[in-house]
Amino acid sequence: MENEQIKQAGLKVTAPRVKILSILERSGKRHMSAEDVYKELLSQDEEIGLATVYRVLTQFEGAGLVCRRHFESGQSVFELNSGEHHDHLVCIKCGAVVEFLDPTIETRQKRIAAEHHFKIEDHSLVVYGLCPECQGKR
Amino acid sequence: MENEQIKQAGLKVTAPRVKILSILERSGKRHMSAEDVYKELLSQDEEIGLATVYRVLTQFEGAGLVCRRHFESGQSVFELNSGEHHDHLVCIKCGAVVEFLDPTIETRQKRIAAEHHFKIEDHSLVVYGLCPECQGKR
DNA sequence: GGACAAGATGCGAAAGATTTTCAGTTTTCC
DNA sequence: GGAAAACTGAAAATCTTTCGCATCTTGTCC
């Protein structure tokens, strides 16, 4: 139940939060922008402001419930935190996103950071390209 | 000479373009935001608007002279295109940027894209962490 | 169940980054 | 040298995200 997750995150259980979390969980898309979530709320006749959507998503991020990603498109997208870190393959035409995980790459990253004496906090690997469906179209 | 590069990019040789390209080449930093370039112009008493800086940088990008990167900090940074693709290690504290190139990672990316039938156009790998200098500070 | 304080929300305004508009100017090309 | 095409600065417009603040809810205590 959403309520539990919110409570455990140390946040009060309020209608907007439950609603937003539920949308993230039920919507087919794994990655949604604040705007996407807002539109979905509107289509469900919910009286929730865009500012609240941002606020809630930011809180969820802080609580570790979701991750914020900045693909090169101007806006941030949020995805439910599945525990496992992973990287993304993004279609530059239709926006489709495929997640993947590659241990080899992870390992190399650690090594490279170590060589430069960096202490890794996070990383982001995004491969942009055309998905199978979009390669045909022009 | 900057003039040649601009001409070869199919752009007319104008004062703002020459000036901006020259700043990118001479400034110590490899990565500059539009704002950085603008400030540099101001400090040289150049009458060039911020809009022009954006326009010119975008044209340079289209012409392949520079690359635009979106690190997770709100604004885009531009760097001269050195021909070689490379990835970045960014300090989340001081903003320092170290470039690196890792063939193994590149190879894995290609393979992963192929597995998902994606046609790679571009990719971006950014590792965020603390640089050696910032690890000591708290 | 009711009162309260802390915390949330909604709305409009604001901020920050980037883009567009527009009228005037500069380049290019012949 | 002159016309067409491309370019420019300034201001206005966009777009995404955040803030200020008055109002409403939630969680807690009696």
Automatic annotation (TrEMBL), chains A, B:
Cited CDD domains: Fur_like
Location of this chain's protein in the cell: Cytoplasm
GO molecular function: DNA-binding transcription factor activity; transcription cis-regulatory region binding; zinc ion binding
Any one GO cellular component localisation term in the record: cytosol
Database matches in Gene3D superfamilies: 3.30.1490.190, Winged helix-like DNA-binding domain superfamily/Winged helix DNA-binding domain (1.10.10.10)
Keyword Iron assigned: yes
Domain of life of the organism encoding this protein: Bacteria
Cofactor: Zn(2+); Mn(2+); Fe(2+)
Chief location: cytoplasm
Record's keyword terms, sorted: Cytoplasm, DNA-binding, Iron, Metal-binding, Repressor, Transcription, Transcription regulation, Zinc
Cofactor binding comment, as recorded: Binds 1 zinc ion per subunit.
UniProt binding sites for Zn(2+): C91, C94, C131, C134
Pfam family, one: FUR
PANTHER family documented for this protein: FERRIC UPTAKE REGULATION PROTEIN, ZINC UPTAKE REGULATION PROTEIN
UniProt family annotation: Belongs to the Fur family.
Subunit and partners: Homodimer.
Record protein name field: Ferric uptake regulation protein
Organism whose genome encodes this protein: Allochromatium humboldtianum
Top-level taxonomy: Bacteria, Pseudomonadati, Pseudomonadota, Gammaproteobacteria, Chromatiales
